[in-house]
Give the backbone structure.
Amino acid sequence: MDFFEAVRSRRSIRQYTNDPVPDAIIQKALEAAVLAPNSSNTQTWDFYWVQSPEKKAKLVHACLNQAAARTCAQMVVVTADPRNWRRSQKPMLAFLEQVKAPRIVKKYYKQLVPVAYTSGPLNIFGLMKWIVAFAIGIFQPMTRGPHFKGEIQAMAMKSAALAAENFVLAIAAQGYSTCMMEGFDEWRVRRLLKLRCSGRIAMVIAIGKEAERGTWGPQFRIPLSEVVHII
Ligand SMILES: Cc1cc2nc3c(=O)[nH]c(=O)nc-3n(C[C@H](O)[C@H](O)[C@H](O)COP(=O)(O)O)c2cc1C
């Protein structure tokens, strides 16, 4: 299946057959997920592939027993935790050393990334960053964030969403269907995954073989002319 076919065939499917989804399909999609572009290559995402039947039952319950969750064969939860920049920093620096990356790139990962991903207790360091950026920004173009905890969280969330999109397209390309879900009880899902405070859930993804009437109808989008703005 070519790229555009995969994009066109992907729909949010809410009813699945009893057919299993081989683990190899999920594995391949996860490998595609982590190839997504992401903020400063910090790879702040995590993927919880729910294989325990008990945990899956709890997750379905936390997803408000939605049909997609209830009937799917497999489930993957994509999470975003900005503190994960620490996880990638050391191997990234070793990698940069190994490939003889330019000094500026190493400096970026060693010095700038920790600053970008930190807001400090009570956002105090974030406020300091905001003041400095604001002052410099009076005279020249300047990044306007992320400074504060919420902005840093949003940055990690963007990357996780891109990975989730890679994942669902990779599933579509292999002939299976998905449904991304944000209709869930975050508190319960967080408890199930034992997420630390800085982690957030980007998406719960149901995966399965589409049943008859797996969607309500054809795909609907407002015309391109209304959303594309040529300036
Ligand atoms: C972030 C996000 C959250 C979503 N949450 C749910 C959900 O909780 N339940 C559901 O049935 N569909 C959910 N969807 C699927 C959307 O409803 C669906 O993508 C949209 O209606 C467009 O349909 P299509 O995916 O078939 O093109 C979600 C999609 C996204 C991207």
User: Anything to note?
Assistant: The chain has one domain: 1-211. The chain has ten helices and four strands. The beta strands are 45-50, 74-80, 177-181, 200-208. Residues 175 and 215 are 16 Å apart (CA to CA).
